Amino acid sequence: MADLAVPRRARRRRVKSPKKIEVQFRTIVSPHQLNSRWGRRIYWAVLAATVVLFTLAFVFPLYWMITGAMKTPEELAQMPPTLIPADPDFSAFAEAWELFDIGLLLKNTAFYALGGWLFTMAVDVSAAYALSKLRPMFGNVILGAMLATLMIPPMVVLIPTYVTIESLGLLNNPWGLWFPAAANGFNIFLLKRFFDSIPRELVEAAQIDGAGPVRVLLSVILPVSRPILGVVSIFTVVNAFRDFVLPLLVMSDSENMTLSVGLSQTAGAVGQNAVMAGLVLAGIPTIIVFFIFQRHIMAGLTAGSLKG
Q1: Which of 86, 122, 215, 257 could form a disulfide with 211 if both were Cys (CB 3.0 to 4.6 A apart)?
Q2: Distance CA 187, CA 123 (A)
Q3: What's the rounded Cα separation, in Å, for the pair 161 and 27?
């Protein structure tokens, strides 16, 4: 009887669904213009031109270095310069290998890179783990002080670093390069950001089973942190091959020089094409490392940025 008392018009009334709210974004070119025939053509033309220009800006120096090693010294000094060698000659590479003693320089640099990598893994991983999971007192202050060092130009701390190394008697000693390489605020920040994304439940479960802080680090944190460990490792190795000023000051003995320092010390006594060939040979290891681990670099930099 209660339903009969309700007016027929009221019973027939339907609940209207709420209106959809369309979010509009203001851009320089409207979506309608971009989807038009000429809009798509202009879009792809601008995109292709941008990609080609940026590719040339990064690839052309490498191309000029490789082709310069194939030219004669006269053709290399010719004005205007030639983009393609008139008579490509690969003998400059063998000459540069012998004149610069690149085999010894590569061995020295690889040795310094390996030691720097071991110290970086030991110091930076431990510091990032402590700041992320152990949460020491004034941890944020310590992290802020580490990140503040990234704002200081390297040339400012170069003299104090050299004086410290000299006072410790570490000149012409690998430890003079390994100790400075271990203290890197950027690597600690990358590692801590990744460690923060690891669920706390994994650490608590290991602690319930009786694992201590060291066992948690070795058995829980490190196995799931391979992407970011790979990125830090690649950065450390590449930086060892690229660094010039500190090895120039610390490794003054010709038998202990790194690759970059050895090339600069002998460059004035050989031809320009041999110098170009030496630079190409010096750049091959880092280029190979990049192409092999390119996917790991991108995956490691983006890993840990999102939680959940």
Answers
A1: 215
A2: 10
A3: 50
Band of residue 16 on the pLDDT scale cut at 50, 70, 90:
low
Is the model's pLDDT at 161 over the cut of 70? yes
pLDDT of residue 34: 62
CA–CA dist 243, 220 (Å, integer): 34
pLDDT of residue 2: 47
Tell whether the model's pLDDT for residue 237 goes beyond 70: yes
Q: Hey, which CATH number is domain 101-302, 1.10.10.60, 1.10.3720.10, 3.40.50.360, 3.40.50.880?
A: 1.10.3720.10
Q: Closest by alpha carbon to 92, among 274, 307, 258?
A: 274
Q: For residue 80, is the peptide bond before it cis, meaning its omega torsion is within 30 degrees of 0?
A: yes
Contact present, 109 and 241 (Cβ < 8 Å) = yes
